[in-house]
Amino acid sequence: MDPNIPGPEEHGPAYSRRPPRESLTSDFVPSMPAPARTAQLVCGDLLLTVNPVDGSEIEPCPPADRPGRPRKRTPAERADAERAARPPVPPGPTQPVYSLLERQDERERLVRLLTRGRSVRLTGPGGSGRTALLDLVAEDCQDLAPDGVVRLNGFNRTADEVASDLFHTVYDAPRHRPDADEMSALLREIGAVVVLDDTEFGGGALDELLDATPECAYLLGATPDVPAPSAEAEIEEVFLGGLDRAAGVEILERTVGRVLTEEEANWAGDLWFESEGLPLRFVQAGALLRQREEQRASTGAVDEYGVFEDLRPAADIPVDLEEDIPLPSLGEAAAPAPLLASRLSGWARATLRFAVALGGELPHQAHLPALVGDTHADAALAELAGCGLISPVGPRYRLAAGVRTQLEAAGFADDAEARALAAAQHYTWWAGHPSVTPERVCAEADAVLAALAAAVPQTSPAAEGEEAPAVRLARTAAPAFAAGLHWNAWERALRSGSQASRTAGETSEQAYFHHELGVLALCCGQFERARAELEASIGLRGALADKRGTVAGRRALALVADRSGEVPERAVIRGEDVPEVGREDAVPPLHGLPGDTLVTRRAPAVTPYGGLRRLARRNLVAAGSGALLAVVLGTVVTLGMTSHENAGDNPAGKVDVNPSESQDTDDGGLGTTPRRPAGDHTGTTSAHPTAPGPDGAHGTTDDPASRITVTPSTGPGWTKGPRPGSTSPRPSKPETTKPGSPSPTKEPTSPPPSSSPPPSGTPTQTPSSTGSSTPSTTDSASGPVASGTSAPTDA
User: Fold this and answer.
1) In which element (H, E) is residue 418 found?
2) For residue 644, what pLDDT is reported?
3) pLDDT tens for residues 285-309?
């Protein structure tokens, strides 16, 4: 099986077939592609559904689905977690374990400080034996704290990520990431000795971590270039230097297994002066002496048929058994990586090339046979560890300090691009395999991200039907990182995938990465960033007419608006058709809103603070307008009722509840009042203010009580629109009435069919209570004026 060739993807990025196998096992390949895997996480009070196809969905978590208070792990569970956090043991014979030399004083001092509850930072250069000393101190402090010793890795980790790792190590909370307040409360209850190696932060970030865990004592390991703690942190500083000359000679004798000759002892003295006594240099120098011993002994391990050809030393100079091999020069001993690698097996050298291509990250030994192409390639881990070319970092290995630079100078980076692409293809197939859990992908996150980072610069505009390797790897690994709660790796994969998809011209993939970045920002409470990413995703998916993706983006954007306290730019219309899908102002209906259709319009770009000021100004104007309208309507109704009680027989003072016919503005506007049947006995009063007129009647006086006049009703109910019997709600021609000609004819209860109301601005005559006629005007907004039940009208 060749995992570097993942095979065709015939069902989109969510499905992938297994790589081709040999003919003998071809019948065991499943005929159907594996479906996409989804996962649900609880992030605070949000429910996150990781969907690798259309994008993750996020919504408020139902109360029934919220997990309870997480419990602390038992000592046995903590021991299992600690064993899983250690680097794998190299295959082959067990390597001897030697005690540290000249480190007893530092060991006792660290244990005393931790016993008093003090935090300590152990500072030493790469290769000084800092990690080995931390391991010994951790064993001495197992019973100091209630929650024991917690070993964490600080390489490529921020303070927030270290706090999250501490929480998940102490508490049993699968698929759960508490919010900030709950996380802070739970961290304060942890009492443990936290051993954090390869710390990369200090100053204020370290202060925040210490404040968040007041019951923990920290043992930090860092290099001198890491920022120092602040003065308020009260952290003891212990510096770890090099060994003396005698200790260096002892390391060489342990490696070779014999006492050094005088020539070798002098050579070791020169090396001690040049290396400043760093233990790693003596381990590598001891490996050079051991290889020299093997070359001097014989090369008979290779049989005559060449079965073990890979074990033949790769030195350019042939070995002469009768001639003594000289010691390496001081320059070769100071930079021994190229010489050591030249004497290793073929698969060990190929492993080093992959490590150089991945920025120093060494793939797990289980991946080496597939990457190198040899079933015995996992044995390369023991060779590299025995030579001091790799060192443990958390649960994995990396090239030791200075080794990558030496190998690059020796030409091990000549084919780095090709090997990085091969690693990216392999991890794409592996991370998408159904048998690989998100936790395993997260454990290999650094190597996967290194392959992704090396493949992104090689991305070019893809041909039709092809997908860039970097895009495929990001699409496959990002959901696994999200499901495994490794959010730093999730974000890095999304950023790299977005850059690669933009370079390759894959718009749909770019929309997916923007959507995922928006969801991630929403989970972290970064609403402005979430809004920007989601709007970018919605715009790209709208251009592609991606219906399902647009719906997912709109729902997430609505949640952002709800959490940030802003009103989304949308309106819900019931029972009406919406424009076609694909337009900027329309999207399909949302799930969970039966009978509703969500119609949206593209919101304008939000600028810092400017949008908030505009929103506040609109809210203030709307509130003021509503309050003013309520006061006016209340005054109108009260005065109308008072006028009705005191009017007596005066027709002009009677107030009726039926609006005039010319008020029928049934044009579909916001002011349209629904029609009611003639027999609807509701007793509702409808009044509309009109402009005052000069004669004291409706629209002619300054008396507020007379500014609202309605037409008397002849029936028990009221209707909006033309009076019964009218054939047209509006006149076809404007008609005028001379101001000086009164109309003594009494208005009939049912007007003739041919009568129509006068247009706006038409002067009419309305008789007052004394019998005199007074000219007045009508308004299209309020209709013709009627002052009583017997008010004459000019037909």
Assistant:
1) helix 416-431
2) 45
3) 999 999 988 887 755 444 444 544 5
Residue closest to 156 by CA, chosen among 363, 381, 359? 359
Collapsing DSSP to helix, strand or coil, 770 comes out as coil
The pLDDT tens digits for 300-334 are: 444 444 544 554 444 444 444 444 678 888 888 88
Residues 6+ apart with CB under 8 A from 347: 310, 368, 372, 374, 376, 377, 379, 380
More confident site: 58 or 35: 58
| Fold for the domain defined by 338-412 | Arc Repressor Mutant, subunit A (1.10.10)
Which residues are bridge partners to 222 per DSSP?
A: 123
The residue extents of the domains of the chain are 103-239, 245-334, 338-412, 628-663+684-712+778-795
Biggest CA-to-CA distance, the chain: 146
Rounded Cα distance between 217 and 6, Å, is: 47
Angle, helices 262-275 vs 245-256, to 10°: value is 120
Q: Is the CB of residue 660 less than 8 Å from the CB of residue 784?
A: yes
Residue 722: which region, alpha, beta or left (left: phi > 0; alpha: psi -120 to 50)? beta
Instruction: Collapse the DSSP code of 423 into the 3-class scheme (helix H, G, I; strand E, B; otherwise coil) and give the result.
Output: helix
Contact between residue 467 and residue 460 where contact means Cβ atoms under 8 Å apart: no
Separation between Cα atoms, residue 433 and residue 474, nearest integer Å: 15
- Other CB atoms within 10 A of residue 706 CB: 22
Cα–Cα distance for residue pair 325/347, rounded to 1 Å: 26
716 pLDDT more than 50: no
* Confidence check: pLDDT of 180 > 60: yes
Question: How big is the CA angle at 315 (ends 314 and 320), to the nearest 5 degrees?
Answer: 120
Measure the CA–CA gap between 786 and 712, rounded to whole angstroms: 7
**HEC string of 699-754?**
CCCCCHHHCCCCECCCCCCCCCCCCCCCCCCCCCCCCCCCCCCCCCCCCCCCCCCC
Type and span of the H or E element at 176: strand 176-177
- Of 472, 480, 349, 369, the residue nearest 421 (C-alpha): 472
Q: What's the CATH architecture for 103-239?
A: 3-Layer(aba) Sandwich (3.40)
Its pTM stands at 0.67
Q: What is the pLDDT of residues 624-637, one digit of tens each?
A: 555 555 554 555 44
Find where tokens 């715009």 sit.
Answer: 539
Strands 46-50 and 39-43, by their bridges, are antiparallel
What phi and psi values does residue 393 have, to the nearest 5 degrees? -135, 100
Label residue 588 exposed, middle or buried (CB < 10 Å: 0-12, 13-18, 19+): middle
Contact 119, 219 (CB under 8 A): yes
Separation of alpha carbons 746 and 794, rounded Å: 10
Higher-pLDDT residue of 345 and 763 is 345
Q: pLDDT per residue over 401-449, tens digit each?
A: 999 999 999 999 999 999 999 999 999 999 999 999 999 999 999 999 9
User: And the tokens for 73?
Assistant: 């792990």
CB 61 within 8 A of CB 522: no
**C-alpha–C-alpha distance, residues 477 and 423, integer Å:** 13
Close Cβ partners of 359 (under 8 Å, ≥ 6 residues apart): 404, 450, 453, 454
**Residue pair 170/72 in contact by the 8 Å Cβ criterion:** yes
- Residue carrying the six token digits 């409706």: 698
Containing 47, the helix (H) or strand (E) segment is strand 46-50
Cα 138 to its chain centre, rounded Å, is 35
Contact 522, 62 (CB under 8 A): no
CA–CA separation, 221 vs 239, rounded Å? 10
Contact, 558 vs 568, CB < 8 A?
Answer: yes
Q: State the Cα angle at 497 between 493 and 498, rounded to 5°.
A: 120
Q: How far apart are CA 252 and CA 248, in angstroms?
A: 7
Determine whether 489 is exposed, middle or buried from the number of CB atoms within 10 Å of its CB (0-12, 13-18, 19+).
Answer: buried
